Amino acid sequence: MTVDAFTCQCVSDTLDGLRDGLSHFSGPSRASVIYAIAPDDPVFICDPQNLLRGHEPRFKELYLDNDQWRCHVPISSDKNRFSYMLPEKNLQLAGLISFGGRSSSVFFQLWFTDHHPDMCSIGPTERWLEHAAWRFSHDMANDKELYTGISGSFLREFASHAVHDYIVDRMNVILGWDSDLRIFPILDAVLGISRTREEQMMPRGELIFVERPLLGSIDYLARFPEMEQPLLDNFKHVRKLLQAVEDSDRKLVSDGKNIVGINAGGRMPPFFLTADFRGNFGFLRLNADEVCSFSDGNFKSTTRKAQLVQVEEALIEAELDHQVGSHLFKLTAALVHAAEESKSGCTLVIDLNHEPVIISGQKLAEPLDLRQPHLLELAKSLSKVDGALHIGQDLRLHGFACLLDGRAIPGEDRARGARFNSALRFTAERQNILVVVVSVDRPFAIIQEGVEISAQCQWAPLTSCLFRPLTLEAWISGKKSGILISGEA
Questions:
Q1: Contact 413, 421 (CB under 8 A)
Q2: 10 Å Cβ neighbour count for 248?
Q3: For residue 480, what are the CA distances in angstroms to 28, 42, 82, 387, 475?
Q4: Residue 383 in contact with residue 335, Cβ under 8 Å?
Q5: Closest-CA residue to 469 (of 30, 33, 18)
Q6: Tell me: the pLDDT tens digits for 148-206?
Q7: DSSP 3-state helix, strand, coil percentages of the chain (rounded to 5)?
Q8: What confidence score (pLDDT) does residue 311 get?
Q9: Crossing angle of the two packed helices 322-342 and 373-382, in degrees rounded to 10
Q10: Among 8, 280, 330, 405, which is 20 to 30 Å from 431 by CA?
Q11: Cα Rg for the chain, rounded, in angstroms?
């Protein structure tokens, strides 16, 4: 069974905008959808970048082996009620985030994207997928005569809306539906303040937002008279006030419209938002939970911390004692994150040989046991010295300021700098060596045997393509969604 050209157009435009928007929010992302327009229709799938490959048995079990998902759905066929949607929640499939729903114009739809390991929260992404489902339902209800083709454009620019919708959902659960805290002005202020310099310095410090009836539950060091409270949308003034709380436990307090005082820490209300400014980036938290980060005037999903998955995998493959491998991973993560936060950069040589290799650099009379917290702190400081730290599988630091040498090899990249290329050369000539390179501007690389094992595979761009969905049965049998030629049905 084929899909009509109008449905292909709606699916393709929505997928294209969704993929592009999420790629800006979370890094390179794929998107796909499973849907059935009418209760008796076959299930169709559009997965142009093979996001869902590997999950075929689960989809077969859910949607082909039984028809329970088609039964007892209290949805009428009235297309005028397309905005009423029964949600289909995240399927909790490994590596995926999913969300969808059922409406009068689309009986069933489920949208998917990548679950990146460095996300602060999947909540905003779920709201993004929810809006994709709503847009598809809206487009299918309008039919081709009224189709505007703007759903993809909405989804490309949905970051602030996704963050807003997630926060409002959480706020309604905690405070109820009658809260007077308006989230969009708060998000605009956070981005505006984050871009405002004071004496050439980017903002630092925390600004918390509390609903007005709950302001009395906070401990204050200072409060401003009601008639003299600075306006939140006066970004320059708020930026100046942040100087009073930077590098401390103090926080500016706002009711979403004004700055009402300076908090002394201690007790907090049941719901509050925190904008944590850290120079050229920052984090938005709901109570104690991170919602997203922000930088360059945009919200992002990233935690801004290196996810050292390849290090963990390499340590497992090295067949080390479980406790040794676990300690080595924790030590590596602590040193990498310290280098990221200090913006100093560093190189770590993780030597998995029973007898550490000889590396030219500053030797130590007695290797430092990095399991001791004060010696780990010393190693963090030593990592700032030019050269690499040499860490053995005995969990000790054997040297610092080490120079990594080696002969030129294919695959070097002059754009990556001396740290990266010297690590390529060094590991190409030595076995059982893992090198982690952290650049000053945050990117990191994990190198083994002359190859960057942390290199990210980029998917082929698919902008403005028109895709042909397949029946789920055909897709499971191994067929791929193709590009639909203009005019085909």
A1: yes
A2: 12
A3: 21, 17, 30, 49, 6
A4: yes
A5: 33
A6: 888 889 999 999 999 999 999 999 999 888 888 999 999 999 999 999 999 999 999 99
A7: 35, 25, 40
A8: 86
A9: 50
A10: 330
A11: 26
According to DSSP, residue 302 is labeled: B
Cα separation, 229 vs 17, in Å, equals: 42
- From the list 61, 113, 106, the residue with the least C-alpha distance to 87 is 106
Structure tokens at 231: 């306006």
Per-residue confidence (pLDDT) for residue 465, from 0 to 100: 67
H or E stretch at 304: none
Q: How many CB atoms lie within 10 A of CB 14?
A: 25
Which residues have C-beta within 8 Å of that of residue 484, sequence separation ≥ 6? 5, 8, 12, 466, 467, 468
Instruction: Check: CB of residue 478 under 8 Å from CB of residue 60.
Output: no
Give the whole-angstrom CA distance, residue 120 versus residue 305.
10
Residue with tokens 């008279």: 225
Calculate the dihedral angle through the C-alpha atoms of 262, 282, 335, 265, rounding to the nearest 10 degrees: 20
pTM of the model: 0.84
Q: Please name the helix (run of DSSP H) or strand (run of DSSP E) that holds residue 314, with its range, or none.
A: helix 309-317
Per-residue burial over 167-200, b if 16 or more Cβ lie within 10 Å, else e, is bbebbeeebeeebebebeebbebbbbbbebeeee
Q: Which two tokens stand for residue 216?
A: 């009395």
Contact assessment for residue 256 and residue 209, using Cβ atoms and an 8 Å cutoff: yes
Categorise residue 478: left if φ over 0, alpha if ψ from -120 to 50, beta otherwise: left
Phi-psi region of 387 (alpha: psi -120 to 50; beta: other; left: phi over 0): left
pLDDT band (50, 70, 90) for residue 32: very high
- Structure tokens that stand for 81 in this block: 């009620």
Alpha helices in 207-261 (DSSP H): 235-241
Extract the tokens encoding 271. 């719901």
Give buried/exposed letters for 90-109 (b at 16+ CB in 10 A, else e).
bbeeeebbbbbbbbbbbbbb
pLDDT in tens, 82-111: 667 888 878 889 999 999 999 988 999 999
Question: pLDDT for 257-302, tens place per residue?
Answer: 999 999 988 889 999 999 999 999 999 999 999 999 999 999 999 9
Q: How far apart are the C-alpha atoms of 96 and 31, rounded to whole Å?
A: 10
Q: How many residues does the chain have?
A: 489
Residue 30 and residue 115: Cα distance in Å, rounded?
10
Neighbours of 257 (CB within 10 A): 18
Q: What is the pLDDT of residue 77?
A: 63
Neighbours of 450 (CB within 10 A): 18
Residue 198 one-letter amino acid:
E
Angle 78-11-302 from CA coordinates, rounded to 5°: 115
CB 187 within 8 A of CB 153: no
